[in-house]
Each structure stands twice: as structure tokens, then as C-alpha cells.
Amino acid sequence: MCEENLEYKNVFLHFLNYDTQTIFNIEERYLTKEIEKQILLGIYISILISEEYTFLPFGFPYETELTYKILLQLSSLRREGLIRYAGKELDLHSFIEKKKRWLRTL
């Protein structure tokens, strides 16, 4: 059944991150261009169906070189506020400090 007046809230997009790529062996199974295409498609669709903006995890740009590259391409969407970052931490600084503490344990 298709409803014409679907209302979506802001979308938290968390797919094809580093953990998912590793668990499903994505880099071995698909070409980088294919992975990039799927991530971009997911981001574009989530922006279109979101009420105001799409949330990405704080760490998404830093998890892989590919995700960093993709988000550089989308910098105008970030500047317009259509892509925002979120996480358990209150802000990016707290996220970075948490990751530094975690890295020290390795």
C-alpha cells in the first residue's frame, strides 16, 4: 500500500560504515566506485525524505578514506545544514576525546 502523505522525521543514516563494511567484507566483494555510489545514493535519498536534515554518525567522515572523500563532495549540503552529525557524545570534541581514550587501550 502506498500512501501519498508520508511524513518523515529527520533520518539518522548509519549504513556502510567501517564496521558494516568489515563484517560483510564489502571492500572485497565490491568495487570502490560501487560502494561510493551506494553511500551517495543512501545519503541523497535520506535528504530527500527527511523533514529537515539527515544525521550521520560523528565518526562517519573519519572511518575510511572513502567516506571522508564522499563527505568532501557533499560539503555544500553540510553548509546548508542538510547533513548534520550526531552521536552519543554531546559534540565533536567529546567524540574525539572518547576515541583518543579508546585508542590508548589498544
Q: What percentage of residues falls in helices of 4 or more residues?
A: 55-70%
Share of β-strand residues = 5-15%
What structural class results from the helix and strand content?
mainly alpha
Q: What series of H and E elements makes up the topology?
A: EHHHEHHHEH
Major pleated sheet:
3 strands, parallel
Number of domains: 1
Shape: globular
Task: Identify low-pLDDT runs.
Answer: none
Averaged pLDDT? 85
Tell me how many strands there are. Answer: 3
Record the strand order, biggest sheet. Answer: 1-2-3
Radius of gyration, rounded?
15 Å
What's the end-to-end separation, in Å?
A: 50 Å
How many H/I helices? Answer: 7
Concise overview:
With 106 residues, this protein is mainly alpha-helical.
Descriptive keywords:
globular, 7 helices, mainly alpha, 106 residues, single chain, three-stranded parallel beta sheet, 3 strands
Question: Helix and strand layout, with pairings?
Answer:
Layout (H helix, E strand, L loop, with lengths): L10 E2 L5 H6 L2 H4 L2 H18 L4 E4 L2 H4 L1 H9 L1 H5 L3 E4 L5 H13 L2
Parallel strand pairs: 1-2, 2-3
Report what the structure shows:
The chain is mostly helical and 106 residues long. The protein has one domain. The chain is built from seven helices and three strands, in the order βαααβαααβα. It has a three-stranded parallel β-sheet with strand order 1-2-3.
